[in-house]
Amino acid sequence: MISIFEHPWLGRFFGDIEISALWSAEAQLNHYRAFEKALALALEAFGKVEPGQGHAAARAIESITIDIGDLAKASVIDGLPIPNFVNQLRTAAGDSGNAVHTGATSQDVLDTALVLTLRDASKIISERLEILDARLDELRYIHGSKRLMGRTRMQTALPITVETRIESWHSPVRNHRRSFQELRHRVERLQFGGPVGNRDELGEYAQEIVDYIAKQLSLTAAPTWHSDRTGLAEYANWLSAATGSLGKLGKDVMLMAQQEINEIDLEVGGRSSAMPHKSNPVMAELLVTLAGFNATQLSGIHQALVHEQERSGASWMLEWMILPPMVMATARALSTSITLLSQIKSIGTGV
Predict the structure, then answer these.
(1) What pTM did the predictor assign?
(2) 3-class SS at 193?
């Protein structure tokens, strides 16, 4: 087992089908195509290639069937798929091959594809945050006035209402919703810097070409960020913070579900192979696990901030290994939280 998110049976528990699909080979190739097609059209629009060549190249890019086997073999040598991908496109484009990838570099394609993927993932995350927000409102409305023993440092303290406990779950969710929308504007940015990040190969119309491509892809036209990974680090910070807040919800439910405490009654619980009387709070446990997973991954993303000179290889690759699972864990934590809240039959003790 390499990744628990893709395990033949545990993957259904830890993973997320919608998020996994965003990183499929087909989805990633479509993003590569979208970048190269927009670039080809921009090169023609601003006179960098002969009239008609950009459109011809765009048609070839759209229609070509990429040889994934060849892509995989070349990636072992090149360390990334784009050189081989570009060669396949140029061959397909024939006489219009000079309209393919001109002025760009591999990182432009891969970073833009990442941003397009994160944009799609962010839409899913935003939708689930909205549902979770509403579900917590509903829980407060139904159970908020009931009594509950407040606990500090794992010891009984003073009576509270259930609303007080729910608010400790809900307030971070509201904050995460607000900050996420602001964060997306700093992440969903086109990457286009060319070989060394100065866009010199595009000539006097460099900014206009960048603006054109960004508009085609519905991204923000931003300065080159080849070696400035702070936007992605902020995104990862948010992922870890969000799963941490949901992990707190999960931890509370785990403690409230203890048979000696009996402060919450869940409709569904996990079975034990040896003790049929048990009903394990597996959804709550999963939230704690996913929070721990993202917290440990975050340090790796901070390591990936250290890019040498104009562009890095090693730090850049580290992002590929870490960021997609963090997104997966966050999306799964959100869907798990929604499920868990829907399983609450009663909460509170009437203390």
Answers:
(1) 0.93
(2) coil
